[in-house]
Amino acid sequence: MQNDLFIRAAFSQQTERPPVWMMRQAGRFMKEYWDIKNKYSFLEMCKTPEIAADVTLLPVDLLGIDAAILFSDILVTAEAMGGELSFTQGVGPRFANPIRNEKDIDALSIAVEEKLRYVADAIRVVQQRLNGAIPLIGFAGAPFTVLSYLVEGGSSKDFKLTKLFLNNHPALAHKLLDKIATVTITYLNMQIAAGVNALQLFDSWALALSWDDYQEFAHQYNVKIIAELKRTGIPIISFCKGSSVFAPLMAEARPDVISVDWNADLRRIKQTLPKGIAVQGNLDPFVLYADQAVIKKKIIQLLERMRDEEGFIFNLGHGIMPDIPFDNVKFAVDVIKEFRY
Q1: What number of other Cβ atoms are within 10 A of residue 311's Cβ?
Q2: CA atoms of 64 and 54, how far apart (whole Å)
Q3: 241, 280, 249: which is closest to 137 by C-alpha?
Q4: What is the DSSP string of 274-287?
Q5: pTM of structure
Q6: Distance separating alpha carbons of residues 296 and 290, to the nearest angstrom
Q7: Distance between CA 153 and CA 100 in Å, rounded?
Q8: Which class for 114: exposed (0-12), middle (13-18), buried (19 or more C-beta within 10 A)?
Q9: Distance of CA 143 to CAs 229, 235, 288, Å?
Q10: SS3 at position 320
Q11: For residues 54 and 62, is the Cβ–Cβ distance under 8 A?
Q12: 279-302 per-residue burial string, b: 16 or more CB within 10 A, e: under 16
């Protein structure tokens, strides 16, 4: 691989500078994304390998980042299981058949590989085009986060239905989580076979959980997934909103990297983790709305804070918002790439 900074950092090896990529880096803040999006629906983009590859490669060509992440969505597994998924502009994902009882759970299939074949096809197209320039990251949604969408029927601000489900019907919750975990293992192993160089497990809504509920309804399933991946030489990143709280538990799942939100002192988190676990993060994405002098100052502060720490990947604490100016994102990437240890 011509640029292996990201892989080396993910395995806590020495690098001459921090590698940089950003969650949602192939997204709505780019005009070029909208040039494609205005022609196709979101799911058409995900399910057409050539288009998914086009979008995946936008930040490679326009930003010069150190790792690409496959253009897809964390909910494709839920759709393949039988969720009736749609995306509406300004509303987000919706499931027309939310989970309400055991019959609904029983109706979900775990035979998803053929239905998700388009993802493997997209990976092969991307890797052919990358031609070894930088690593490609594959990903999946973690079981609790996927469950929350299936139970809520879409996005939620308070996760009321999800928490009622966990509290009143824990056995059903575990039945559903076990199904999702089984599918996630199949899906990520399919991505590995198709040629990804790294993986990220997104438990985006774990912050909704208490410590005990995180252990019971999220952590144990993430442990199972990471343990059952056929991933020799392929690092896996564990991400959740709430990683500043849950990092000690996340480390027990034995990922190679923990992606940390912006609420934490990244160096302190790193120093509390077992040796050999790298960290990723953790700039507040709202910094990228600021003046470029401020952006540079905040980034340099973070880079200097992590100067002596092996195993550091620069990223945001969460994804890029759609109205962040493209020029600010490009400026941020350039600042990071000019930094040297």
Answers
A1: 25
A2: 15
A3: 280
A4: PTT-EEEEEE-GGG
A5: 0.97
A6: 10
A7: 10
A8: exposed
A9: 15, 19, 31
A10: coil
A11: no
A12: bbbbbbbebbeeeeeebbebbeeb
Residue 39, C-beta contacts closer than 8 angstroms, at least 6 positions apart: none
Q: What's the token pair of residue 216?
A: 């019971």
Can you spell out the DSSP letters for 199-227? EEEEETTGGGS-HHHHIIIIIHHHHHHHH
When pLDDT is averaged across residues 213-218 and rounded to a whole number, the result is: 98
CA distance 206 to 202: 9
The b-or-e profile of 71-99 (16+ CB within 10 A means b, else e) is bbbbbbbbbbbbbebbbeeeeebbbeebb
What are the structure tokens assigned to 168, written together?
A: 């009143």
Residue 74 tokens read as 């964390």
pLDDT tens digits, 7-60: 999 999 999 999 999 999 999 999 999 999 999 999 999 999 999 999 999 999
Distance in angstroms (rounded) separating the CA atoms of residues 255 and 25: 22
